[in-house]
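Lab notebook, bench 4. The sequencing result for the construct came back, and we need a structural model before the next group meeting so we can plan mutations. Quick request posted to the team channel:

Model the 3D structure of this chain.
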Amino acid sequence: MNEVSKKFIPVLKLSDVVVYPSMIAPIFITKSDATIAVENSLLTEDHKILLVLEKPSKKNKESQENLEPSEYAEYTELTEFIEKSEEDLAHTLEEEVEKTTDNLYDIGIEGKIIQVLKFPDGSVKALVEAMHRVKLHDIHYQEELLQAKYEELEEISVEEDEKVKALVKYTLERFNEYIKRTTKINMDSFMSITEIQNNAGKLADILATYLNIDVDEKQKVLELLNTHERLEYVSTVLSREIELLGIEEAIQEKVKYKLGKSQKEYLLREKLRAIKEELGSEEGMDELDEYKQKIDEAKVPQKVKEQLDKELSRLEKMPAYTAETAVIRTYIETVLELPWDKKTEDIIDLERAKKILDEDHHGLKDVKERILEFLAVKKLSEKPQPTIICFVGPPGVGKTSLARSIARSLDKNFAQVSLGGINDESEIRGHRRTYIGSMPGRIIRAIQDAGSKNPVILIDEIEKMIKSHMGDPTAAMLEVLDPSQNSNYTDHYIDLPFDLSEVFFIATANSLDPLYKPLRDRLETILLPGYTEEEKIHIAQGFLIPRQFDTNGIKEDKLIIEESAIREIISKYTRESGVRELERSFAKICRKFAVELVENPEIQVKVTNKNLFKYLGVPKFIREEAEKVPQIGLVHGLAWTEFGGEILEIETSVMPGNGKLNLTGRLGEIMQESAKTALSYARSNYEKLNIPLDVQEKYDIHIHAADGATPKDGPSAGIALTLAIISAITHRPIRSDVAMTGEITLRGRILPIGGLREKCIAALRSEICNVIIPKANEKDLQDLPDYIKEKLNFKIVSSMEEVIDFALLNKN
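Done. Here's the predicted structure in token form:
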């Protein structure tokens, strides 16, 4: 015998269902004491709960026991409708719970709550995994909570012999006959029982679950611990049920000519309508009628209508309040909600689009021109445009808001799909309906949210999808964004083709480098560079500050933020390509001023660079004094990152050693090769540079890139690395007011680089006025804003000698 548990466990009373071990069952809860039991179970670590059946009332039991088999069949047919009505009434009118335990069986199930769902009408569905047969002890109410101790019961297994095998075979044959004759078992959802033929106890439990018998008979199956006796009992009950089915079939055949199908349906529906009127229901038709009407009225393709009719037919044959019926309802509603034929009229007006883009975004001239070109082609061409626009740029430069502006200019519905961190292919394609909690993929859900079949859908952070053991979401996106395939896009959940060819897809990314190459080839890339200081000032004055004033309820005459304060924030409190941190700074100023305004309603404040610290505190970014003085081995390189341009400080030290080259600061493979190339250039030109011939035999060289936690890579730091090495070896300081970018070869040629605009903005942010760039990039200067060209002095170089002459000073 097992010991009785020391702790009390919450008890859930069941009135119409018996659960057996190793099964997962949905239990619908409407009574308050049952809800309390579930809530207390969820407060425990293991979520355990005891399931026990209430004994049927004696009156109902005696009325059934006094019937002959033929009478019982008629009784069953006549009372089915009434019982269903009584169940509906029980769900509508919740009775007061009697605090008694005399009507409970003492044999039940130890279970574990897996999931709880709450419905709008207040009812609760708990998904419970049954684990063991148990005997309950000391059942009592602790205030509103029914609880008990329990003792785990062990099965008495009988050794398998010819007699047991024969019984198993006979029982399975009878059950196969039963499921052929009954209409109450859905063959699609029936599990295969061939795998458990060697377990008589488990076989008996499963067969008892599917039999349409009284709950007290199912309780007896639960109480039989001897597996052979349990299967014998189930086999006897099964034979009786088959006999009853035969009687029912004979009765139905006799009265068939009296009551046609249409008459029967009319009679049943009239009875159902009368019962609903008695219950006070205002609905003039039942749920199935509503679904049928919606399907008939829906403007959907014929294939979709056929599939919905098929699902509705399955729903009619299933009992209410089961997990499968909930799945079918959700599927039908989801398919009907999709905009199969709903579309908005395209309004392509270039003047209107230009006006909206200018209203919502300052600057970005090249980007706006490219968008207008795309819209012009779309207006002239009658065919769908296969191009998928992808905005690429650092955070905060307006990629998402540009997509919203395009949708507004076209007067289209807008939906957004965020793909950052997605590692499951099913998030794109949808989950198959065989899984619990399955749902459509994000693309279909976006279409559903948009409410039209031709919306603008923003696919945000498309490069941040991750391949995993659950599939490759980037590969799934190929079908979505391929114009030759997406006209018949099939989501796994919907399992019906949906036309995506009219959807205007816009993607965003911080960088295209991590993106799957076949997917990258489907995208029309539009680069959004970082904002210059002047552009940020215009954006702050025209967009950010008014928006924060409105958000925080501040009037313009109460708080004035001067341009000097804005410049101070840009240079000393934020270092970014976009304007997100800038807007957060304005929000912080507004919040602090709001406190002052509440305390003194008459106050008026003007924020300048002099009193800015009062609202934002100490500046976050201040160049140290040492950086403003020319130093040996310290050079300012310029780097491009997915977040914009950055100043890259490179330090080099020479020390006694045996020729080692140490590289630190998380330098990537390409940057390490650049450092080796730089050292080789310096050694090969030792005479011109006055470098000792034996420098590599007697000294070690250590190169470090500041901000060691950030990975760095790329060839554009080549001239900066070379200059730092030459400076450290020759003890000649480097100008502190110079920043540089360019790739170097072994012969000292300077090769072109990318991201010139962003790098120039980074130099301005750090108050560096001289920038060395490769001669091959001279043509890119015309694309820079005028104020950048006015504030920066560009040194155009084609060889390393020119860099040394311009940036390297003589020895002190």
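The longest helix spans residues 227-255.
Will bring this to the meeting.
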